[in-house]
Write a structure and sequence with these properties.
This protein is α+β, with helices and mostly antiparallel strands. Helices cover about 40% and strands about 20% of the residues. The protein has helices spanning about 10-20, 40-50, 95-110, 145-150, 175-180, 185-215, 240-250, 255-270, 315-335, 335-345, 350-365, 430-450, 455-465; strands spanning about 25-35, 60, 70-75, 85-90, 120-125, 130-140, 230-240, 280-290, 305, 310, 370-380, 385, 390-395, 405-415, 415-425.
Length: about 475
């Protein structure tokens, strides 16, 4: 396949955006910087030079008449950094609320498809002499993992390949070349392969049925709906060590803890707006990376999905964590991830005009099953710098579309875990209520985990027994 031609998944983000005039499918990262800020011209020049080494930052999309073929990346005839690096002064007093309002303003606007699909916005006027830079690119370029790798490319610190990314020196010779021709062994291998393939097919079919049911079965909580042209943005930040403490104490993953905190955040935000959580759980779409380590820096999308239910109808954070852990494990074992991957692979075999029309049609249909999108992207483990200035905080910004009026992106950076929360301006829930609820959920779990410091086995038993 031509590396410059979009895959079905990449192009799907464009078609989904086309199906709703109020959707903007860009992902972003907000870097809060230590002052003093460099001169704007100096920063423009630096980003011009550094982005030149990232091919997609100098390419535009070429589309074909009647969608006869998938769009492809071609070199831009002209490029002016002034179209891509801009600045704005946030409103006084330059606090988090002012910065987040500026983020929402930028995320409301679509990227211009006649130019390379990225922008950087420099925010000036922050409190304590700080400044910020918001780097925004279209989702058709990269998923969260690849986008984070691209972000590192404009920082002073250049990423280095880990040992896991090195190709193996082990011979990949086939079993036949090693043992010679053995018809009995060959028949046994073929039978084993057919049985395994059939088992995987049944597993994926079960997962596909669950995904379809999840998308088209109405959620117990009506928190989704048509998007407006305005956004709201907020964020929550917790110590990564606190999340790891809860994870280790109760034998769950960091993702489990993050989703449990998000569950408590939704419940808290619902109660603040007088919405009764007891009506039932809410369903969230959780993208799952299927990207091999050796393709970490390839700019494209390599994700599948899970559709777990968040138990907002339960008031005890520990019970929420137990159910999130159980439901995520069930979703992972149900074949949903495999089904998503097979659907994406199959879409690449469908003639592009049919695929594009189908995605646009599905994007226009009312979607009542999934309330939010929740994604977790591992960020840099050490502090990064831009022009010698430290990045103090790194806040992820997800998109929202297809009736999901809330999006939450979770990113680790240095010793913190940050939740970026974007919402439609007319959504029933307030993003600040949701963010504060997430912080409260983590704080409650940390207090329980600390109290259970000498009863590790009891803690696991309390959590994992149905």
């Amino acid at each position: 396949m031509n590396d410059d031609r979009l895959t079905a998944l990449d192009a799907g983000f464009l078609q989904t955006e086309d199906s709703d005039s109020h959707a903007s499918l860009a992902v972003a990262a907000l870097a809060i910087m230590e002052g003093p800020a460099p001169g704007f011209a100096e920063l423009q020049t630096a980003l011009d030079e550094r982005s030149a080494g990232i091919p997609r930052c100098r390419q535009v999309l070429h589309t074909h008449v009647l969608d006869l073929s998938a769009p492809q990346w071609v070199e831009a005839h002209t490029f002016d950094i002034a179209h891509h690096v801009r600045r704005v002064t946030v409103s006084a007093p330059g606090d988090d609320a002012a910065v987040y309002r500026a983020v929402a303003d930028v995320m409301e606007r679509r990227l211009d498809r006649s130019r390379p699909l990225w922008e950087s916005w420099v925010f000036e006027g922050l409190a304590d002499g700080r400044w910020a830079i918001l780097i925004k690119l279209h989702h058709c370029i990269a998923d969260g993992v690849a986008a984070t790798a691209m972000l590192a490319g404009v920082c002073d610190d250049k990423p280095t390949a880990s040992h896991d990314e090195q190709p193996s020196a082990t011979s990949q010779s086939s079993p036949l070349s090693l043992r010679g021709f053995d018809p009995i062994a060959l028949g046994t291998d073929a039978l084993r392969m057919m049985t395994s393939t059939a088992r995987i097919g049944v597993h994926a079919a079960r997962g596909a049925a669950q995904i379809v049911a999840g998308l088209f079965t109405t959620s117990g909580q009506q928190l989704n709906g048509q998007l407006s042209d305005l956004r709201q943005f907020g964020a929550a930040q917790v110590a990564l060590a606190d999340v790891q403490l809860v994870s280790e104490r109760f034998g769950v993953t960091v993702n489990d803890v993050a989703l449990a905190a998000i569950t408590d955040g939704f419940r808290s935000a619902m109660l603040q707006r007088g919405i009764e959580p007891a009506a039932g759980p809410i369903r969230t779409l959780v993208p799952v990376s299927v990207r091999p380590a050796e393709l970490l820096h390839v700019p494209d999308n390599r994700v599948s999905l899970l559709l777990p239910d968040l138990p907002v109808d339960r008031s005890d954070p520990l019970e929420q964590l137990r159910l999130v852990h159980k439901r995520l494990a069930t979703a992972k074992g149900s074949g949903q991830r495999q089904a998503g991957s097979l659907v994406v692979a199959a879409a690449n075999l469908v003639p592009f005009p049919i695929m594009a029309s189908a995605v646009r049609l599905l994007g226009r249909l009312p979607q009542r099953g999934v309330v939010a999108v929740t994604t977790n992207v591992p960020g840099p483990r050490h502090q990064m710098r831009i022009l010698g200035r430290p990045i103090v905080d790194l806040v992820p910004v997800p998109p929202i579309a297809v009736g999901m009026r809330t999006g939450i992106a979770v990113m680790s950076y240095a010793d913190r875990l940050t939740f970026g929360v974007i919402g439609d301006y007319d959504a029933a829930l307030d993003v600040d209520d949701l963010a504060r609820g997430i912080e409260h959920g983590i704080a409650h779990l940390v207090s329980v985990a600390s109290a259970a410091a000498h009863t590790h086995r009891l803690g696991n038993l309390m959590l994992l027994v149905s």
